[in-house]
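Supplementary Methods, section 5.1.

A reviewer requested that the exact input to the structure prediction be made available. We therefore reproduce it here, unchanged from the version used in the analyses.
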Amino acid sequence: MTVRAPRPTAAADWRALGTSVRLVVTDPALLGSCNLLLARQLAEVDAACSRFRTDSELAALDTAGGRPVRVSPLLAEALAVALRAAEATDGAVDPTIGSAMTAIGYDRDFTLVREDDRPVSLRVRRVPGWRAVSLDRATGTVTVPEGVRLDLGATAKAWAADRAVRMLAGAAGCGVLVSLGGDTAVAGEAPAGGWQIRVQDVTGAVDETPAEGSYDTVGLRFGGLATSGTAARRWRRGGHHLHHIVDPRTGLPVRSPWRTVSVAAADCADANAATTAALVKGAGAERWLTRLGLPARLVAHDGTVVTTPGWPTSAVAPEAAA
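The structure derived from this sequence is encoded cell-by-cell as follows.
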C-alpha cells in the first residue's frame, strides 16, 4: 500500500518492527518532533510484543510454564486487541499460532527468513486456540498454557499504528497519518479530499520479486485502512512454497482464493483483523465483510477484483468493528 499525501504535508520514511514506517503530518514544522515520538513509541512496542527478541515481554511468556505472569499495561493492551480480534473473527485470526509460524520457518525477522535454506517438515495441526489464553486486566496478569507460543503479528502492527496516530494527533494538534507495513491509521484534521491512499495488489510467484498488480486510490478521512496478502512475504523451503498468513485450522499457510484483501474500518486494528480473516475464510469472505458493513476490495489469484458496498467512494471507516 502506497500513501500519497497532497501538500502542504511533510513525510518521513524508515523501518521499525521489521517493516516499513511512514509518518505524514499536515504541519511540516512538527515532523521532526512527531518522528521522535513515533520512534520512541514503536521501540516500546517492540520491547513488549516482539516474537523475535529473546528479551521481549512476549518471549518471557514462553518460559512461564503455564503460570500467571504479570505484564506491562502495554503488552496487556496488545493482547486484549489480539483476543478481541480472535473473538470477532470466529478464530480466523488467532494469537496462538506462534509455534506454527516457527514450524514453517518464520522464526526471525523476514529479511532473514528467505536466506535460510533449512528444510521444514509440514503437518496439519490445529493451533491451540485463543480461548486457552487468559488475560486478567484487573490484575495485569496473563496465563498461557505450557507449550503455547503467542504471535501478535496479525494485530500488533495495526494496533501500534492506531495508538501512535492518536497520541501524535493529540500532541501535535494537526492531521497525522501513520503507516506500518501498509497498515494505515489517520487522526486529526485530514487534508482537503482526505488522505489519498493507494491500495495496491501484489503479484508474483515465490521465486520472483513481487510485482504490482491493479490498485485503487481511496480518500481516507478518519479511522484505518489495511491490506493483507499472500504474495508479498513468500519463501521456499525444501520444495515447499510458503507465506506468512497461517490458517489456525491447519497450522499451515492458508490456501485462499484471494491474493490480496483491503478493508477500511473504524480503526486500523479492526481493518487488519478483517483482511487476515477474509484470507482465512476464503470463499464467501466478501459476504462476511458485507454483513459487517466493511468496505473492502478483494483480489483473486487471476486478478479478478470483488468489492463490497462502500468501496472505494465511501471507504471512510464505518462505525462497525471488524
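The chain has two domains: 2-44+154-307, 53-152. These observations are discussed further in the main text.
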